[in-house]
Amino acid sequence: MRPVKRMKFNVEHIGRLGERAGHLEIRSKVFPTPFPLLTSRRGSIPNLTRETLEYLNLPETVVLHPYQYHAKQTDVLQLFKKGLGGFVGLDSSLTVLGINDPAEVSKSGYNGNKNVSVWNFTNREIVDARRYVEFVRAAAPDVWVALCDGDTPSDASKKRISKAVKKTLDFLDTCLELKSELKNTSLIAAVEGGRDLSARKYSAMESAKRPVQGFLLDGFHEGGEKAENLPWAGIAELFKETVAVLPKEKPRFYFGPARPDLVLDLVGAGVDVFDASYAHLVTDRHRALVFNNVFRKDIIVDKCIS
User: Fold this and answer.
1) What percent of the chain clears pLDDT 90, i.e. is strictly above it?
2) pLDDT tens readout for residues 184-215
3) Which of 48, 147, 170, 263 has the largest count of CB atoms under 10 Å?
């Protein structure tokens, strides 16, 4: 199994609104931030063949692999011994392991008191922290998100939100406890709390006390097309106040299909890494993103048509 080095992050500039520019180092590869992760579905990059991927002229790629598609493959990966990236033929890319596919709408109401549910086609997999970490050991990702409960839709009750925050912190503690064989991987803590500011701040502050390498701003949406229509005006203050609690020296991640204007808002609020699921959702609808750039000296005026 290939050697993995822990993720390092260096902030080089913080703008007036909180936007950040820096460098994220993963396995000795350095990426200027903010930057996007390619998102895989069942092991493949949607709408891109291996040959096409090579033509993108990217010096390195980082791929987000949703656990939901690989939950049953622990035994296979243990025998394979080359990690999830090698198993799906993307061993030359760096691997980030998330929980759910951000391009799919999550099913709500199926998480238990000590577990969460993930869905592969119509099959439901019930996963606790120990089972999840067993998979992580076999998958050998470069970066992985601790098991979390992000089932907090906009109308979630305070009781549901409180349970999601507590469970996520309990999951995080279990992941840290069982991480002894994964010393060279980087662990990201999920910050939950739905639309409740006090719950979000508590989740952020408690997560920041743990020895993690980054944070995922989770639970703001239900994934898929619902996430595309996320109104930034409705969560902007909540998002910014949550981010303000997190340590500035660690990277912040956001997963979900974000429109180009939402990406700019997220980056302006201090997000360092997002994913590219919006692009393949647009492609699945047989449409394309077209940017009409008007160049006037050193100023670029962007108009986005989707």
Assistant:
1) 76
2) 899 999 999 999 999 999 999 999 999 999 99
3) 147
